[in-house]
Amino acid sequence: MPSPILRRRVYTVETTELEQGSSYATTDLYQAAYFFSAGAKLTQTARQGRRVTFVFDAPTMLELRKGWDNGSGDVVAKAYVDALLHLKQVARQR
User: Across all residues in the chain, what is the average pLDDT?
Assistant: First the structure.
């Protein structure tokens, strides 16, 4: 019996490098939750239509971004879930 074909949706995520080397902006809610749960400070949110941009500032932002991109980032699962729920609430309030 042939195995079912799995299709994966790929979403384009806009990320922006800000002028300061330690600030980072993303519209990816899951990436934002990772940064927030890893201790990055949420400095700003902005809405453009239905899309919310989260801006973070942390001295270790480069390491956090590398951990996210490589899949080697390590955070506590409970902290990640709490961060995800918090950021969803922030996004709805904007």
Answer: 83
